[in-house]
Structure to design on (365 residues):
């Protein structure tokens, strides 16, 4: 895992047109375009933008990106991207940019989306719910839904809403943020784990093939690391070792991951004990996480990188936070198994209070 990560300190520079396929005008290119996998990507922040870039530059997919707050500026100027994987790009756009999810209910099979990739924050306590948002573009029995999101049990609402559609798990380990509307910085190599959330109502092998196909499409660019992970639940619990510790503790203290390590005391009294609580709950749920994961998780945040976890960035911006699926679900899982998680409980309750404040500031309370 550690070997797969690369950190870059310098960027090369490229000028990029609206879309490179616009330069191809002869018929063979049009035929190639028609064969590409059609991807609808929802959520054009840091992770979503890099995902769209990987998919497009890999040459096997065409991406339609649904944007919200950055739609106007990206429509006019494209994205400005500084990436340790791709260099510096100006005026970059995916194949198409929209400000709402399109309806494909009345379109021909050629107009359907093969994959819908969801890169939005996972905030179930704030509407509208993601299954409702993407529903108009989901073709029953055809569209594969990819959740590149944090947390556990995130697949359940999609199983209920789309029982005939395959749902994939995307566990991303990347430091990519939208510094300002349309301006994206990627400081950490893109490592994406993909597997299938196993739905008992669908064919197991078909679900596995859908995951493996997405790995090929996403990894075709050659500058990222995209791995097929058959044990989705174990993979998600493993990432919670980071997400349920560094993420909320950095957010609540205002210290980034490097500064947190410099304190020494906080690592020993808060961060590592929180990790061990995740270990205990995961074990109760049937997933034994090795002890070495603690040191591996710490090493994912090199001292010289000053990485800010996503929740800390959201805190600083006054955005709603995704505490329910990375803390709340762990606490509830512990309660189901009659386990004690004193540190995670406190972190969760404080995050709930801050979420109320963020909702109040946005006029949602």
């Amino acid at each position: 895992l550690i070997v797969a990560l690369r950190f870059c300190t310098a960027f090369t520079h490229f000028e990029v047109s609206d879309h490179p396929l616009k330069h191809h005008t002869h018929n063979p290119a049009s035929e190639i375009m028609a064969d590409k996998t059609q991807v609808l990507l929802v959520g054009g922040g840091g992770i979503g933008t890099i995902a769209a870039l990987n998919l497009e530059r890999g040459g096997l997919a065409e991406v339609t990106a649904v944007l919200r707050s950055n739609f106007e500026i990206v429509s006019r100027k494209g994205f400005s991207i500084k990436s340790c994987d791709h260099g510096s790009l100006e005026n970059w756009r995916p194949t198409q940019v929209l400000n709402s999810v399109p309806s494909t209910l009345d379109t021909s099979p050629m107009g359907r989306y093969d994959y819908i990739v969801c890169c939005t924050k996972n905030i179930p306590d704030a509407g509208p719910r993601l299954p409702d948002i993407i529903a108009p573009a989901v073709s029953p029995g055809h569209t594969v839904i990819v959740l590149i999101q944090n947390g556990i049990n995130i697949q359940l609402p999609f199983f209920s809403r789309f029982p005939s559609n395959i749902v994939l798990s995307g566990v991303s380990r990347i430091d990519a943020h939208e510094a300002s509307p349309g301006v994206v910085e990627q400081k950490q190599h893109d490592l994406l784990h993909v597997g299938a959330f196993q739905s008992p109502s669908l064919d197991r092998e078909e679900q596995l093939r859908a995951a493996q196909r997405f790995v090929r499409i996403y990894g075709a660019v050659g500058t990222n690391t995209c791995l097929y992970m058959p044990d989705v639940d174990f993979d998600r619990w493993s990432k919670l070792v980071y997400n349920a510790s560094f993420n909320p503790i950095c957010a609540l203290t205002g210290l980034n991951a490097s500064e947190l390590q410099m304190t020494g005391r906080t690592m020993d009294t808060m961060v590592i004990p929180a990790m061990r609580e995740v270990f205990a709950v995961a074990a109760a749920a049937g997933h034994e996480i090795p002890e070495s994961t603690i040191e591996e998780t710490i090493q994912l945040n090199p001292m010289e990188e000053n990485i800010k976890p996503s929740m800390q960035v959201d805190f600083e911006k006054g955005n709603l936070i995704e505490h329910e699926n990375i803390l709340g679900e762990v606490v509830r899982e512990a309660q189901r198994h009659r386990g004690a998680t004193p540190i995670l409980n406190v972190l969760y309750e404080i995050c709930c209070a801050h979420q109320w404040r963020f909702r109040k500031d946005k006029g949602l309370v």
